[in-house]
Design goal:
The complex is a heterodimer of chains A (252) and B (253). Chain A has 252 residues and is an alpha+beta fold. Chain A has one domain: Alpha-Beta Complex (Sulfite Oxidase, Chain A, domain 2). Chain A is built from seven helices and ten strands. In chain A, strand 1 and strand 2 form a beta hairpin. In chain B, strands 1-2 form a two-stranded antiparallel sheet. Classes of the chains: A alpha+beta (252), B mainly alpha (253). The interface between A and B is large, with 41 and 43 residues.
Chain lengths: 252, 253
């Protein structure tokens, strides 16, 4: 081994210093531009942060692929859901006529919307693919109103950063950042293909986030909360998924 | 730069090659383990855009699944570990991609690809390939430990410039977000399920390479080659056996 020269020592020291400074600046910039996911801690934090930051930059203006009508699945696969509770069954017996969507948090006019209320908002449809993290997928036509329309109706306050959405089922909730919430393909879905949204597919109301995997598309939505921080929700990881080991950001 | 074999004192492998090699080894096994774990949740493969338990698979792995929604013919389920498997898979993928970039830039800049891996013009002929294969079949000991033969060079270049880019591409093509930004990435492969099936097979080819690679290292002299890849020791002449020298003397140059 040759002894380390003074020049080499100084060069290495400067390089290490520049590296640390560079990383600090990168972290500050990432924080400012909202590139840090709520589940950025822990051993897989670096990977989650890289996934989220890279895809957030890459997908700023992108649209999920839409498909021709002929590719709609004749027999779509309704994934397993835990047995539905009694309250849900009562709603189901009533034809969901009492189903309400509460919208609260950082909004100018908190609201409680019925399904007919939602149907007065602009109606959009998309033929997109549901892709499960397990690997399977199917294509369906999803009909509903863009989440952005609901948010526009209630008036989002300027500093809001996330929309948290809750299922009627206990401990089933998730959230998206404002970019995804205002994206025109992010929809509150109440119909599928030629009819109402079946319960197996999340009826009466399902969040559809086609640029992310299936588990982000929470079924039986009853409440939206607009917020500037995810810390008060659950364990502060942005969703019930990270509490079960899954990434908050599900674009991959 | 310290390209292989330029002088007896230079390391067998440059430091960048050694460091990136071992990071890749660790990340590859993390990817293999977590990838296998993810496959267990749906051991059915399809071709085209979509596929699920309501559609006909291209083929099914004869193993139990970790989800009860998949018909497998087994009466029991395997433990579901997809949460950390996915996180580990992507973290290791970032490690492989970033390490690969460093290695590729180094390889181009230092001449490593050109000098050590590109087959020399005289070797770019089919009969040279056959001669090398014949030598392997006759189990002739390696004759020049300071340089790779045409078969090794072709294998390494295929892994570096074909299989690794392909496994990254087919993996990214399964990301709905990436596909929204770069739809051609998935469409060119024939759809999301085709990408998944190709990802599985390319991973299999990479595993096949690893098995052959490690077997050859063991046969050629495990200790010396591990030393070469770990601390850069030149592979010394004493590895040449007496038998080898006799064979060479018999065959002539």
């Amino acid at each position: 081994m040759t002894p380390i020269s003074r020049r080499k020592l100084i060069t290495s020291g400067l390089a290490a210093g520049a590296g640390v400074a560079g990383l600090t600046v990168a972290a500050r910039l990432a924080e400012r531009y909202g590139l840090i996911p709520p589940d950025h801690k822990g051993i897989y934090g670096p990977g989650e942060t890289l996934n989220y930051a890279a895809q957030r930059l890459l997908t700023a203006h992108s649209l999920a692929r839409e498909f021709p009508r002929g590719m709609i699945a004749k027999e779509p696969f309704a994934n397993y859901v835990a047995p539905l509770d009694d309250q849900f069954k009562r709603h189901q017996a009533n034809g969901f006529s009492d189903w309400r969507l509460a919208v609260d948090g950082m909004v100018e006019r908190p609201a409680s919307l019925s399904l007919p209320d939602l149907k007065t908002l602009p109606r959009r449809s998309q033929i997109t693919e549901v892709a499960c993290e397990e690997g399977w997928s199917y294509i369906a036509e999803w009909i509903g109103t863009p989440l952005a329309e609901v948010l526009h109706t209630v008036g989002v306050l300027p500093h809001a950063r996330y929309v948290v959405y809750f299922s009627s089922e206990r401990d089933w909730w998730d959230s998206v950042d404002m970019a995804e919430a205002l994206h025109r393909q992010t929809m509150l879905t109440y119909a599928m293909n030629d009819g109402d949204l079946p319960v197996g597919f999340g009826g009466p109301l399902r969040m559809r986030v086609p640029r992310q995997l299936g588990y982000k598309n929470v079924k039986y939505i009853t409440r939206l909360t607009v917020t500037d921080t995810l810390k008060p929700f659950g364990k502060g990881l942005g969703s019930s998924s990270p509490e079960g080991g899954y990434a908050w950001y599900a674009g991959i | 730069m310290s390209a292989a074999g330029s002088s007896p004192k230079s390391p067998r492998h440059a430091a960048v090659v050694r460091v990136t090699h071992w990071i890749t080894v660790i990340a590859f096994f993390a990817l293999l383990l977590s990838g296998a774990e993810i496959v267990i949740s749906h051991p059915r493969f399809y071709w085209g855009e979509t596929g699920n338990v309501m559609t006909r698979p291209l083929f099914t792995l004869p193993i139990p699944a970790s989800r009860n929604t998949v018909p497998t013919g087994y009466s029991y389920m395997l433990p579901d570990q997809n949460g950390w498997s996915r996180a580990l898979h992507f973290q290791a993928a970032w490690a492989v991609v970033l390490t690969g970039l460093v290695y590729a830039l180094f390889g181009l800049w230092s001449g490593h690809f050109r000098k050590d891996l590109l087959p020399v013009p005289a070797d770019r002929k089919l009969h040279v390939f056959w001669e090398v294969i014949a030598k392997y079949l006759r189990r002739t000991p390696p004759d020049d430990a300071h340089s790779y033969n045409v078969l090794q060079r072709t294998a390494y270049l295929s892994v570096i410039f074909f299989l690794f880019p392909l496994v990254i591409w087919t993996g990214l093509a399964m990301s709905p977000a990436f596909d929204s930004a770069v739809p051609v990435a998935v469409n060119a492969l024939g759809g999301r399920q085709s990408a998944r099936t190709l990802h599985f097979f390319v991973s299999g080819l990479l595993l096949l390479f690893v098995v052959i690679h490690v077997t050859m290292v063991v046969l050629a002299g495990f200790r010396s080659r591990m030393r070469a890849m770990m601390i850069g020791d030149p592979i010394a002449a004493p590895e040449r056996t007496l038998e080898h020298t006799l064979v060479e003397a018999e065959e002539g140059p």
